[in-house]
Amino acid sequence: MLKNILRRVSKILPDNIFVRLQYKYLTKKKLNIKNPVDFNEKLQWLKLYDRNPAYTIMVDKYEVRKYIKEMIGEEYLIPLLGVWKTFEEIDFNRLPDQFVLKCTHDSNSIILCKDKSKFDVAKARQKLNRNLKKNFYWYGREWPYRNVQPRIICEKYMVDESGTELKDYKVLCFNGIPKLIQVDTGRFSDHKRNVYTTDWQYANVRITLPNADASSVSKPKKIDEMLSCARILAKNIPHVRVDFYSINDRIYFGEITFFHGAGYEKFLPESYNRLLGSWIELPTNIN
């Protein structure tokens, strides 16, 4: 019932009301916004009160490239093959046999093309055009997305040492300091997730998804470089997740996320929700 109500009135409710209701629906707990303690609670607080306009640039998958070039260097960027306002502008004849399409303003519109001769253009058009019409902000009130210009970008198709995928190395930073590395594998097949400390000790925690075999996830050869880049990008931010890929002994930037799982991740054991929350020092100078 609450889900149906939220769907009908999502664009009418102010952020603080919507966030409380959605938190209750998804976590089955009351949101303590006045004195947040858990990780998920503090992310809801940051949604409402930490509204640095620079965050909008940092979540825009096209504009962030300029930011990355300035902050850590262009060599960390996956090569860009094109950017368009509409799907109809894409000239597929000029694209290579393999490529990746994604929208700039959301987090679930990735389309992989491994063989252009078998690429379903109509299916891609339907998905991307549908996503271009959506404002990702309304779904979880992650406000940095509200003013991102919807566009489509195309990046070079790349795989890591597996030869079949890219592992996501998601560095969770707290008040500018990298604390944990979440590794997502099999994102488009059998999605699993492990968590490691920054010195690559396996953390016995499950965050929403099943764990992979710990021995199946290799430590990035340039983990120190990855953590150094994350530290630069996370400077002066209460909490941010900086994603990277490790490809042929090189580190590439993935994306920046301010609200991990929109602040609704499920932790097993739940004590990790409290632990990560203790690492976030909420700002006191918010207007």
Structural write-up:
α3 crosses α9 (271-278). Helices cover 28% and strands 22% of the residues. The strands form three sheets. A six-stranded antiparallel β-sheet has the order 8-7-6-5-10-11. It has helices at residues 2-9, 15-27, 39-49, 54-59, 64-71, 121-132, 137-140, 223-233, 271-278; strands at 80-84, 99-103, 111-113, 152-156, 168-174, 177-185, 192-197, 202-203, 206-207, 239-247, 250-257, 267-268. It folds into three domains: 1-28, no CATH class; 32-50 and 159-282, D-amino Acid Aminotransferase, Chain A, domain 1 (2-Layer Sandwich); 79-157, no CATH class. The chain has 287 residues and is of the alpha+beta class. The radius of gyration is 19 Å and the shape is globular. It is built from nine helices and twelve strands.
Set down the secondary structure blueprint.
Elements: H1 2-9, H2 15-27, H3 39-49, H4 54-59, H5 64-71, E1 80-84, E2 99-103, E3 111-113, H6 121-132, H7 137-140, E4 152-156, E5 168-174, E6 177-185, E7 192-197, E8 202-203, E9 206-207, H8 223-233, E10 239-247, E11 250-257, E12 267-268, H9 271-278
Antiparallel strand pairs: 1-4, 2-3, 2-4, 5-6, 5-10, 6-7, 7-8, 9-12, 10-11
